[in-house]
Design a protein that fits this description.
about 5% strand; two-stranded antiparallel sheet; about 55% helix; mainly alpha; 2 strands; globular
Length: about 140
């Protein structure tokens, strides 16, 4: 996927490596939500929001970066930010969680709207490429 001219692609195997590393060092230390079920969902479970959010969250991004999987971390972080923008529940969420991505959109000039537009265009452009399912298991 290309976002603003930069190639961004996540590798599912990187997430599996993080899960294996968590099993070795005890996932309580890093606190990721990755489990075997999260990384190997059944077809119907692929629509489960809770399982998806176990992949697309800030703890997973931090663990990926800690293990040196920066490209996958950047990819996961894009969709984590998208979810945060679209799923805010209160006006105080940005202050409570200290996360500007969760702030309420009050103007049409908000950078987060441009981010969503760019991400949406990148996803649409990816549909025509040979790597349409870039973040899925092969």
């Amino acid at each position: 996927m290309f976002l603003k001219g930069k190639h961004v692609c996540g590798k599912w195997d990187d997430l599996k490596e993080v899960l294996n590393a968590d099993a070795i060092i005890n996932s309580i230390i890093r606190g990721t939500s990755l489990t075997f079920k999260v990384l190997n969902p059944k077809p119907l479970e692929r629509q489960n929001v809770r399982l998806s959010l176990a992949v697309f969250n800030c703890k997973t991004v931090a663990a990926l970066r800690q293990d040196g999987f920066n490209e996958t971390a950047e990819f996961v972080e894009l969709f984590y930010h998208m979810w945060t923008i679209l799923n805010f529940k209160s006006e105080q969420a940005s202050m409570r969680f200290n996360d500007n991505w969760a702030a309420v959109n009050r103007t049409s000039n908000d950078d987060r709207l441009e981010f969503l537009q760019d991400l949406g265009n990148a996803v649409i452009a990816t549909r025509n490429s040979s790597r349409y399912h870039c973040f899925t298991q092969v």
